[in-house]
Design a protein that fits this description.
Helix content is 0%, strand content 27%. The chain is mostly beta strands and 129 residues long. It has one domain: Ribonuclease Inhibitor (Leucine-rich repeat, LRR (right-handed beta-alpha superhelix)). The strands form 4 sheets. Strands 1-3-6-9-12 form a 5-stranded parallel β-sheet, with no helix packed on it. The protein has a 4-stranded parallel β-sheet with strand order 2-4-7-10, with no helix packed on it. Strands 5-8 form a two-stranded parallel ribbon. Pfam families: LRR_1 (PF00560).
Length: 129
């Protein structure tokens, strides 16, 4: 319970898998996560994270489901992505463009607006290649 301490995650320079699911963590997604060049799998589901999801990383598994993220899902460099789960958040606007030959699973279900009505997402903005 609490926030991920600032300036600690980036010290884990060889970390490949980070799993912090179901810990009641809250706050913004730490910028330090973007500074781990070896990170391949990120599991942050079932927490209370808020804010944006600005993330640009060559990652295989990206699970942010069941949080309180809002705004647009600004995720780039998805060329090696195998699994993307953004479900049960408060995103709006365009979904991320997904162009990965390795993609096995994608979940955008139950993305709702702040008033708990279904969000009007522009589904045509993502593509499976």
């Amino acid at each position: 319970m609490g926030e991920i301490p600032i300036a600690t995650i980036r010290k884990l320079r060889k970390l490949e898998v980070l799993s912090l699911w179901h810990n009641q963590l809250h706050g913004q997604l730490p910028r330090d996560l973007r500074m781990i060049p070896t990170l391949k799998d990120l599991y942050l589901q079932h927490n209370l994270f808020t804010g944006s999801t600005k993330f640009s990383h060559h990652i295989k598994v990206f699970n942010l489901s069941d949080n309180r993220f809002a705004g647009t899902a600004d995720i780039q460099n998805l060329d090696v992505l195998e699994t993307l789960d953004l479900s049960n958040n408060y995103f709006f606007g365009n979904l991320p463009f997904v162009s990965s030959p390795f993609l096995k699973s994608i979940n955008f279900s139950t993305i709702v607006s702040r008033d708990n009505s279904r969000s009007l997402l522009e589904i045509q903005s993502f593509l499976f290649c």
